[in-house]
Structure formats: C-alpha cells, structure tokens
C-alpha cells in the first residue's frame, strides 16, 4: 500500500489514500485546538455529525521542540489516534518559523537568540529609523536549518506512527508567509543580499519557462530579458527586472522567503513523501476592491506589499515560489473576501497545481461557494475556518457532497459544473452571476435562481453529466436553483425534459435510489427542473406550487426534437 499522494487521473488531480481517490470535506480548527487531545475529545463527534471527514490543525514548533534537540510528540500521537478512531483524516499545519508573517510559534530558545537567528528590521515612519519585529529573517541560514531539522523530525515521526494508517494525508509548510509592516527586510543582512541583484538562475528560469502565471506576465513579462540576453557576469538589479519600489521589494522577499520554505519542505518530503503545500494571504490587485463592508482591512489583504505579507505566494510571484520549492506539491489560497472564482482560476494555473482552499468563510456566503470549487475546479477540499465552534452551515453542504462523492470523483473535469447565487439585498440589484451555463456535447445546460412567486432566494449546487460526454443525463444536486436545457444542433426545434427523478441516498448500500418521479409543478410542465430552497417565498400566492427542498438530489434526462418546419 502506498503513502497518501496526488495523482493525475482522467478525472483531474486527485488525492489517493490507501490506493483509492478520496474527496476531502475539511474544516480548519482554531489555532490552538489540535494542541490538546483532551480538548479535541469534545469536538470529534460534532465534526463527524456535520460530515466533516478531514480536519486541518496546527502542529507548532514551540510545542514539539521546547528544548533544542528534544522532541515531544505524545500529545500529537494521541490526537492522531483519536482522529483515526473517528474516521477523520488530518491535514497538519506546520507553524514553524512563520505564521501570518511573524514568528510567534518559534521555540523560546529561537526567539531569545537574535545573533544566531537574526530578526527582520522594518522602516518605522514614526521614528524615522528601523525597528525590530518578531520575524526570523529569511536570510538566516541557522533559522532555516533549525526549522528544517524540526520539520524533518516531525515528518519522520509521522511516517513511523501513521505510515501504515494514512490518517495524516497532507501537511502545510509554514502559514501565510511574507513580511507585514514593510515591503522588504531592511536589516544589514538583507541589504547586502538586495545589492547582489537577481540570481542568474532565477532569471534564466523566468526567461525560459513556458508556464508563467498570467498575473506574473501582466506585471513583469516586458522586463524579463530573453535567455540569449542574460550575461553571467552582469548584476541585474531587482528594480531593473521587477520595477521600482515595492514591486522589486516584493519579488526580492518572495525569492528569499520561498528559498527558506523550500529548505524546510525538502527536509520534510525527504523524511516522509506525502503531499506538502503552503498557503497564501492574498493581495488585492485593485485598490477599489478594498471596500470590505466595514470589515477591518487587515483581515482582507491590501493592495500594497507590507499591508498584505510581502513575499508570500500570491499569484503574481507564484512562479518565483515554484522555482524555489520543488518539494511543495502545490500553492493554496486562503480565501475570505476576494472574488471566489477568480482565485479558483488563479490557483489552478498551471494545470499541475490542484485547487485546495485551506481557509475560507464558514458562513452561508462561504458555504454556497464550495459548490463552485468542487464542481468546476475539482478542488481537493475547501476548509472553513473555526469549525470546532460552528460547523452546521458548512455541514449542510457537506452532507450532500458526501452522498454524491462517488459521482464527483468519477466525473471528468468537462462533465461537471458548480455554481452559486447570493442572497438578494433588500434594496438594489442582485450581485454576482444570475445565470450560469455550460455546454455538454450538443446540449447547453442553463442554471438560474429557483422560481418563486415572492422573493427569490440564495442557492448553490452542482451538475454532473452521467455516462459518456454526449449523454443527456445529469445528476443535479443542491438548493435554490432551476435547470433548463437548450439543444445546440441547428436542426433542433424543441428541447425538453424527458425524465426527472428525485433521488435519495441509501446509507446501507451507499447508492442513490429513486424516491419520486418528478413532473408537473416540479418541472413547470417540462420546462425546467426546480431545486427549491428549504423555505420558498410564495409571495402571497395561495397555491403551493414550489415545494420545499427535501433530498436536494435529482437525476434528469433532457431530449431534443428535430423537425422540418
């Protein structure tokens, strides 16, 4: 039996555990939760009841190596054992040198020794000088060596205690790396490195790569010299390649932060080669997008490096990260306030980077969007943050996803689509897409809000084509929408619904079975299939023609008619 790993399959990149593809339905715990097996004993059953099958939780450097060279894994072992008993996978988050741009989870012996583990210095506008922050400098060789040794010991231990069980299926290396408070490290150590210019190996990579990210190309492509123009003896300044000011600073930090993380990741992968990734505190490209409806801007990122962590693996510097971190299997976005679909697109480029969202909103806004991530972008998982204190909202969606996981895992990327509709504001027009569509062979599938006589509600769901790619049969899953079809052949004169059946999940067999044959009001007499919300608004209409949601799963077959007119 192999260790957990990622595999490119006809159905996309999938996580393989015990030789079978699995669909992770994860939630991330609060930062300290996984440090206590006793605390987690009060949580496992509640998570399981919400169909959460994977938990993301922190393992911190300060806890496992409180004294240099002495490692403590007893509490972690108890947590892993309990997760296994409850049938829950673990994705461990290594809070080593970096967590949210600072080093608060480093051991005491690291924090106190600033000569061996030098700190980052930033510019302080109030004093007109530099100040020290609690961040180990990415230029600290002793820093990455100590972190790598600890992470390697952790991974070695995981292999020993869990290699035969595969409870731990992935590990995140560090957390939301980068520098907050300035666009780059201003320490003497950093200034010397900055003066050396862009490493020639990086420049050659960027000039020859055929898979540069579109966000990188938008910003920097016109400044990168061709391979034939690069001379070994020339110093190419960061400003000349990446632009003046904060753009050069960010690229500089991205190179050295990723180099640091790359060393740590390599040590872990060498010890136990299960999937590794790192996560991203995202930026906003457009400053006008910073209106977060009253939320503090620090939680949403910013438009300037240093407001968001400068040097973290944002899309426009992801190519620098990939150059330095071959031991990482992918880069992942923490996604709270950004355009959800655009971020999904950004983190499935290149195609070898599978989508995994290690942090996102746990409210209905976030829960609706997981359908898009799983359905359209083949996500390995989407992980609402703080599920040990509230998981019922995401649980409603995960319970449905559990029931159709087999169909999702067995569908090709072009045979599925996810979508969502947000709540309509009390005043003003709806935001976001009001119509989703996808072509399957010669048939267009069109998704709109569910029909009601009153106010239309929010919704979300997924369409999966059943059978071959020219099939007209579909599994329809979710709430708050309706599905209609349009034949695309020029000879088609009519497109309708041939058959529609509400399905229910049989827990004993793990299969779907027919509960009711739908027609009449449920299909608007063959016009479209309605997948209602739990409480449709009748708007005062005296006849209940839109019934509340029940199983939220249907199998629908469309058909077309071709006539001589």
Backbone shape: globular
Major sheet description: 8 strands, parallel
The radius of gyration computed from the alpha-carbon positions, rounded to a whole number of angstroms, is 26 Å
Helix-residue proportion: 25-40%
User: Assembly type of the shown chains?
Assistant: single chain
* Strand order across the largest sheet: 4-5-6-9-10-11-12-13
Number of domains: 2
Question: Which structural class do you get from the secondary structure elements?
Answer: alpha/beta
Runs with pLDDT <50, length 5+? none
Instruction: Determine the N-to-C terminus distance.
Output: 62 Å
CATH architecture level-2 label of the largest domain: Alpha-Beta Barrel
CATH superfamily of the largest domain: Glycosidases
SS summary, helix count: 16
At the third CATH level, what is the topology name of the largest domain? TIM Barrel
In percent terms, what proportion of residues is strand?
25-35%
CATH class of the largest domain: Alpha Beta
Whole-number mean pLDDT: 94
Work out the number of β strands. 23
Protein name: Glycoside hydrolase family 35 protein
InterPro entries: DUF5597, GH, Glyco_hydro_42_N
GO molecular function: beta-galactosidase activity
GO biological process, one term: carbohydrate metabolic process
Structure in words:
With 565 residues, this protein is of the alpha/beta class. The protein folds into two domains: 5-410, Alpha-Beta Barrel (TIM Barrel); 417-562, putative beta-Galactosidase from caulobacter crescentus (Chondroitinase Ac, Chain A, domain 3), CATH 2.60.220.20. The protein contains 16 helices and 23 strands. An eight-stranded parallel sheet has the order 4-5-6-9-10-11-12-13. Strands 14-17-18-23-20-21 form a six-stranded antiparallel sheet. Helix 6 runs parallel beside helix 11 (246-271) and helix 11 (246-271) runs parallel beside helix 12. The N and C termini lie far apart (62 Å). The mean pLDDT is 94.
């Amino acid at each position: 039996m192999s260790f957990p790993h990622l595999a490119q399959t006809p159905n996309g990149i999938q996580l393989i555990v015990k030789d079978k593809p699995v669909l992770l339905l994860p939630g991330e715990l609060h930062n300290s939760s996984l440090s206590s097996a006793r605390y987690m004993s009060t949580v496992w059953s509640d998570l399981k009841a919400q169909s959460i099958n994977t938990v993301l939780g922190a393992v911190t450097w300060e806890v496992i190596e409180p004294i240099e060279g002495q490692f403590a894994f007893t509490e972690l072992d108890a947590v892993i054992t309990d997760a296994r008993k409850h049938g829950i996978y673990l994705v461990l988050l290594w809070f080593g040198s970096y967590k949210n741009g600072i080093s608060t989870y480093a051991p005491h012996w690291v924090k106190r020794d600033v000569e061996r583990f030098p700190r980052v210095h930033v510019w302080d506008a109030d004093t007109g000088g530099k100040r020290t922050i609690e961040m180990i400098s990415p230029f600290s060789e002793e820093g990455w060596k100590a972190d790598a040794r600890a992470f390697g010991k952790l991974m070695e231990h995981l292999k020993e205690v869990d290699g035969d069980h595969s409870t731990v299926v992935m590990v995140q290396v560090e957390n939301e790396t980068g520098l907050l408070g300035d666009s780059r490290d201003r320490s003497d150590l950093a200034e010397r490195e900055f003066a050396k210019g862009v490493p020639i190996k990086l420049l050659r990579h960027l000039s020859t790569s055929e898979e540069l990210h579109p966000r990188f190309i938008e910003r920097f492509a016109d400044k990168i010299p061709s391979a034939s123009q690069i001379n070994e003896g020339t110093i190419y300044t960061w400003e000349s390649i990446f632009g003046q000011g904060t753009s050069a600073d960010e690229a500089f930090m991205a190179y050295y932060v990723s180099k640091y993380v790359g060393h740590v990741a390599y040590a872990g992968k060498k010890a136990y080669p299960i999937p590794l990734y790192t996560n991203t505190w995202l930026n906003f490209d457009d400053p006008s997008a910073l209106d977060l409806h009253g939320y503090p801007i620090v939680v949403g990122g910013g438009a300037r490096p240093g407001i968001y962590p400068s040097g973290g693996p944002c899309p426009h510097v992801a190519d620098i990260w990939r150059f330095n971190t071959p031991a990482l299997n992918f880069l992942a976005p923490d996604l709270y306030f950004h355009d959800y679909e655009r971020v999904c697109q950004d983190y499935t480029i290149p195609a070898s980077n599978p989508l995994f969202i290690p942090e996102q909103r746990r409210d209905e806004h976030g829960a609706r969007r997981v359908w898009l991530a799983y359905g359209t972008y083949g996500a390995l998982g989407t992980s609402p943050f703080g599920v040990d204190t509230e998981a019922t909202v995401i649980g409603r969606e995960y319970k449905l996803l559990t029931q159709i996981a087999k169909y999702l895992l067995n569908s090709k990327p072009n045979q599925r689509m996810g979508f969502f509709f947000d709540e309509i504001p009390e005043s003003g027009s709806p935001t976001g897409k009001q119509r989703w569509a996808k072509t399957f062979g010669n048939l267009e599938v069109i998704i709109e809000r569910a029909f009601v006589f009153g106010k239309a509600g929010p919704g979300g769901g997924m369409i999966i084509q059943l059978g071959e790619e020219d099939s007209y049969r579909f599994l329809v899953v979710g709430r708050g929408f309706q599905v209609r079809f349009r034949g695309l052949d020029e000879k088609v004169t009519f497109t309708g619904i041939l058959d529609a059946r509400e399905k229910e999940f049989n827990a004993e067999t793990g299969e779907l079975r027919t509960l009711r044959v739908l027609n009449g009001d449920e299909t608007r007499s063959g016009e479209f299939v309605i997948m209602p919300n739990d409480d449709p608004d009748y708007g005062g209409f005296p006849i209940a023609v839109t019934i509340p949601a029940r199983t939220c799963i249907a199998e629908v077959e469309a058909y077309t008619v071709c006539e001589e007119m």
